[in-house]
Amino acid sequence: xxxxxxxxxxxxxxxxxxxxxxxxxxxxxxxxxxxxxxxxxxxxxxxxxxxxxxxxxxxxxxxxxxxxxxxxxxxxxxxxxxxxxxxxxxxxxxxxxxxxxxxxxxxxxxxxxxxxxxxxxxxxxxxxxxxxxxxxxxxxxxxxxxxxxxxxxxxxxxxxxxxxxxxxxxxxxxxxxxxxxxxxxxxxxxxxxxxxxxxxxxxxxxxxxxxxxxxxxxxxxxxxxxxxxxxxxxxxxxxxxxxxxxxxxxxxxxxxxxxxxxxxxxxxxxxxxxxxxxxxxxxxxxxxxxxxxxxxxxxxxxxxxxxxxxxxxxxxxxxxxxxxxxxxxxxxxxxxxxxxxxxxxxxxxxxxxxxxxxxxxxxxxxxxxxxxxxxxxxxxxxxxxxxxxxxxxxxxxxxxxxxxxxxxxxxxxxxxxxxxxxxxxxxxxxxxxxxxxxxxxxxxxxxxxxxxxxxxxxxxxxxxxxxxxxxxxxxxxxxxxxxxxxxxxxxxxxxxxxxxxxxxxxxxxxxxxxxxxxxxxxxxxxxx
Length: 528
Hints:
Elements: E1 20-21, E2 24-25, H1 34-39, H2 42-57, H3 68-83, E3 87-100, E4 105-110, E5 122-124, E6 131-139, E7 169-173, H4 179-188, E8 193-197, E9 221-224, H5 226-236, E10 242-247, E11 249-262, E12 267-277, H6 291-306, E13 313-320, H7 328-336, H8 339-343, E14 345-351, E15 362-364, H9 379-392, E16 398-400, H10 408-412, E17 418-422, H11 431-437, H12 465-474, E18 477-478, E19 481-482, H13 483-502, E20 521-522, E21 525-526
Parallel strand pairs: 6-7, 7-8, 8-9, 12-13, 12-14, 14-17, 15-16
Antiparallel strand pairs: 1-2, 3-11, 4-10, 5-9, 6-10, 11-13, 15-17, 18-19, 20-21
Helix pairs in contact: 2-3, 2-6, 2-13, 6-13, 9-13
């Protein structure tokens, strides 16, 4: 663990912070954030995470939006913030929750082949239609072998379906347009189901975990690996192929809420928003995803109140609902703002998964230098505040892309600067990363991502016992939380929050993010 958590003075913390104009720093005296950083600890965040686990235990092992577990989580957060003196608002909204009621089926029945395995070979597209169909398969504008770079327009235009036999299943390749466009075009052409397979270039071969976005589509749709699509295509070159495609799913209209808490002082025209999604997936308690981010943001808010920090700029702490259904809570919030209210937000700080068991210190690539997707003007400065903090502590960090996977997406889409931290999800830690950050190369950053074992008792809830023994030997683990990661990321989150809370200069956006038209994800799932 890092330093003692003795609370030091905040006398310097009210000094002029890093002055920024258009993302560039001046020589102003920086804010001393040590008092808040010492007060905000992994142990403090862990106490909130344990409450989230207790809530899940009492409510069917989940804290998903629209469930009693989420409602109880929202009550806990709102009550704690109100007791600390914040102005708390509960913003309710309705959304469509997609639920699979049985395992999907994908099986080539003629020529007879072994059925494919859900999760390993294919996955249901989120917001797929329901249905159980057995029909001939027709390929739609497929390129195999694939082009050197992603460029397939398979299924993107109605013309692709010219002569498509109504009543058939469409075999479509991932490419340049959204999965929703492909499925809607197929349905309009009379398809009874859709199989979308990964395009085939390096990095685009795995099983597609995709979303069609609400409302529920008219026909069943699944995403597969490139290998499965290639197998279908190869068989079709030799003759007719018939397959069974079955999806059992429904959409339920649910009410849920965002929790929004404001400081009682500070400039309202330079509001600093710090947020995390509060919901889990239906499959588990979500202790890392995103109990870790929610607990960290809550602990920062409580310690700021305990230290009686009087910010130069209003700070707004937000806890989003329905993130796991497609960033719905944060999008609802941004959509609800007037143009004036949007301009009053100086920046948004996002903390989604900051305690991954096999972690890397990822910082959002605000200037686009690593991934070519930059945030609105000011985002580069946010990135710099995080990276400079880590460097000052002798800690390495790495960039992660603004790819649409978390709640920053709604903010950068309207020109609000954003940044934040991430410790990794289902991605695999490389040997080079293990050399820098420790842990287990070849294993996921969070081996329990979106599973029941994202809990305080991961092995008892189905995690790989041998892998978690390796991780426990490398790190200080508490359940599915890496306490070293949580300590370092909470430290950085507290530093950035107070730095921007105390700055006397604007960090304002002037343009929308360059990711607006190229975002691959809509929350958890790929959208194109």
